[in-house]
Amino acid sequence: MAVTSYGVNDPLAVKVWSKRLSIEVLKNTWASRFMGTSSANVIQIKDELQKGSGDKITYGLRMQLTGTGVLGDGTLEGNEESLTTYSDAVILNQLRHAVRSAGRMSQQRVPFSIRDEALSGLRDWWADRLDFAFFNQVCGYTPQTQTQWTGLQAPIYPDNNHYLNALSATSTQDESITSAFTFVLPLIDRAVERARTLAPAIRPVKVDGKDFWVAFLHPYQVTDLRTNTATGQWLDIQKAAMTGGEIEDNPIFDGALGVYNGAILHSDYRVPQGVTSTAQTTPVTSVRRAVLCGAQAAMLAYGRDNGPERYTWVEELFDYENELGVSAGLIFGLKKTNFNAQDFATIVMSSWAAAH
User: Fold this and answer.
1) pLDDT tens sequence across 120-161
2) Which CATH class is domain 158-297+341-352?
3) What contacts 346, CB < 8 A, 6 or more positions away?
């Protein structure tokens, strides 16, 4: 009987398993619903190096013109305005992980395939790394110094214009927040107000012509919202009037808690802890850093022959072909956008947050 078999590292097998891993990672990556190549996405994918060489992608920002112009037959020459531009860059590096079987006898003892379990394990590992990288970046969680958890580059602490907390309108210190200052809806109001009035303003995401920002809260902060019985808080608003095709069909609404003042509220346990404002290297464990994001809050870049739909999949046999090893790698970089030492499309919203 003739059979068709693809051995370890057969080119066709590698492509099949790489594609399977890519599909599974995208399906399980929480942040994937906010990704896209357009500048209208919360996470914009930069693909300039997917077919070329280099380890850095630089992108620019042109500020709006502010001159008054010239009326009538007034002289325009000599009254021109120069363009003001700033740049930011995302660094690419390679990240890999692997699993290895103990040998054929170990495989004999279990009813599942080591190869399949390697796929599942690496899928979950990659999805978790990308989600943690997104939150550590947009929330400016600088105590995390292992770049494997931060998109392969150091996070940037939020500047004062892009930081708010539940303590007061002027405080810029997570360490000053006490248990009396949990997450409340006015904190979102203040963030939306600032997003609209900053220069440059934080551009919202468009959904069928409607403007939305996206807010990410830790589950502790969500519980504080839901259990707040004060007037004008969660119990007094319509929690989630999310009916209609444009909302149900759009991924940024998938799993949302509700919509408040133009902000789509999401909850995720990876929203990081607070950070001391002095050294910016010590966590404030009693605080969580919720964040309001607009379009282009983060940039995600991929290297040559890599991308959201292609990881590097390698299988090798060791010890006289007794042990199977499987690795999955990706050349990428993920970074919060920051121009001229100012965050571009994120506002951190810190509050006291503890388990209930």
Assistant:
1) 889 999 999 999 999 999 999 999 999 999 999 999 999 999
2) alpha beta
3) 138, 139, 140, 158, 162, 202, 291, 292, 293, 294, 297, 336, 337
